Amino acid sequence: MAAAAIHCGKAKPFPKMLDGKISLVLLLLLLAAANAAPSSIVGNLRFREAPQFYNSNGCPPPINPSTEYSSSCPSSLVDVAMTLDVAYLRGSMAAINSILQHSSCPQSIYFHFLASSFTIFLNSTISSIFPSLPFIIHPFDDSLVAGRISTSIRAALDRPLNYARSYLPRLLPTCVNRVVYLDSDLILVDDITALAATPIPFPAALAAPEYCNANFTAYFTPTFWANPSLSVSFEGRRACYFNTGVMVMDLERWREEGYTERIEEWMDLQKRMRIYELGSLPPFLLVFAGRIAAVDHRWNQHGLGGDNFRGLCRDLHPGPVSLLHWSGKGKPWSRLDAGRPCPLDALWAPYDLLQPAFPIDVDS
């Protein structure tokens, strides 16, 4: 089980070197630690403080930013869960910014972040960007899934943190019965309250936009489909593809049905015989496809990252848009920095909180 949640704290400095004596091994360890510091991973990026957003009339009382979950949950309007990875931190900050900007009750949203490293750094960074944000960081133990992960078509999909969403019912306090899970490469242009209120009729424990025109069979290997004892898993249900980057989860029902354990069983089988290729998605499909509550497609205009093809730009799906999702290989911040943005990347840019390298004096 993961360690206790972290809400605040300060990083400790390196210890002093006594009498000028230090072993070569220790010196190498210190150098390695310095090279692995978060600032080197994110390229010394600096973020500016986000604007403060306030509740409209009729909203629940604002949540105190220092509030922590204990035996009872605050009366928040919406619980939101996201993973935090320093490599995707810029995207995460833009996503949070977009959620707050378009919410009628931004002070009544509680954020649950899952992180497997640099939790103190991430805590201080979020607090400096969003000083009034009610949030908590739940440390995720990579060892929960490290031995169950099989290599996939893209190395980025094999990081243990990609599988943390399967453990939300264990990591979040048991008083949290419903949570909206969101990836880091998206922005909302609508009020998250509407998404959080999605009905999840019994016996479903999950709601997400479904895409039944997708080639569902392509997500599993010929070995899977050729084995009757495996392919029968989808018998009696209309199994459709859904993207796990946007989900509304009934955690109470999930815990009762032991869905985390079911996902783990499929991952264990994958280690013995290869039945799928695409990271953390297929186990979700095996457990939930055809058994979820439908969400309008407006809440996941996905694929804007161009799938696995570098430089491929995508258009929006037909219909209204409430959420834009740059799933796939191309991320808007990378393409903007490289000077080769796709047209829709301009919709992400206004939510970017990156501090310019050379501040511009608008009064001069």
Description:
- With 364 residues, the protein is of the alpha/beta class.
- The chain has one domain (66-351): Spore Coat Polysaccharide Biosynthesis Protein SpsA, Chain A.
- 28% of the residues lie in helices and 12% in strands.
- It has 14 helices and eleven strands.
- The chain has helices at 24-35, 38-41, 89-101, 119-129, 143-146, 168-171, 192-196, 222-226, 228-231, 251-257, 259-272, 281-288, 332-337, 345-348, and strands at 78-83, 109-115, 135-139, 178-182, 186-188, 206-208, 210-211, 241-242, 246-250, 293-294, 323-325.
- The protein has a seven-stranded mixed β-sheet. A two-stranded antiparallel ribbon has the order 5-11. A two-stranded antiparallel sheet has the order 7-8.
- Helix 3 links the parallel strand 1 (78-83) and strand 2.
- Helix 11 (259-272) crosses helix 12 (281-288).
- The longest helix is centred in the C-terminal third of the chain and has 14 residues, at 259-272.
- Residues 6-37 have low confidence and may be disordered.
Please describe the topology of this protein.
Layout: H1 24-35, H2 38-41, E1 78-83, H3 89-101, E2 109-115, H4 119-129, E3 135-139, H5 143-146, H6 168-171, E4 178-182, E5 186-188, H7 192-196, E6 206-208, E7 210-211, H8 222-226, H9 228-231, E8 241-242, E9 246-250, H10 251-257, H11 259-272, H12 281-288, E10 293-294, E11 323-325, H13 332-337, H14 345-348
Parallel strand pairs: 1-2, 1-4, 2-3, 6-10
Antiparallel strand pairs: 4-9, 5-11, 6-9, 7-8
Helix pairs in contact: 11-12
CATH homologous superfamily classification:
Spore Coat Polysaccharide Biosynthesis Protein SpsA, Chain A
Based on CA atoms alone, the radius of gyration comes out at 21 Å
Topology, number of strands: 11
Helix content: 25-40%
Gross morphology is: globular
Strand order of the largest sheet: 3-2-1-4-9-6-10
Distance between the termini: 55 Å
SSE ordering: HHEHEHEHHEEHEEHHEEHHHEEHH
Structural class: alpha/beta
Name the quaternary structure.
single chain
Which CATH first-tier class would you pick?
Alpha Beta
Number of helices: 14
pLDDT under 50 segments (min length 5)? 6-37
The CATH topology turns out to be Spore Coat Polysaccharide Biosynthesis Protein SpsA, Chain A
Any idea how many domains? 1
Please state roughly what percent of the residues sit in beta strands, choosing from under 5%, 5-15%, 15-25%, 25-35%, 35-45% or over 45%: 5-15%
Mean pLDDT: 85
Largest sheet, strands/sense/barrel: 7 strands, mixed
Named at the architecture level, the CATH assignment is Alpha-Beta Complex
Pathway: Glycan metabolism; pectin biosynthesis
Family: Belongs to the glycosyltransferase 8 family.
GO molecular function: glycosyltransferase activity
Pfam families: Glyco_transf_8 (PF01501)
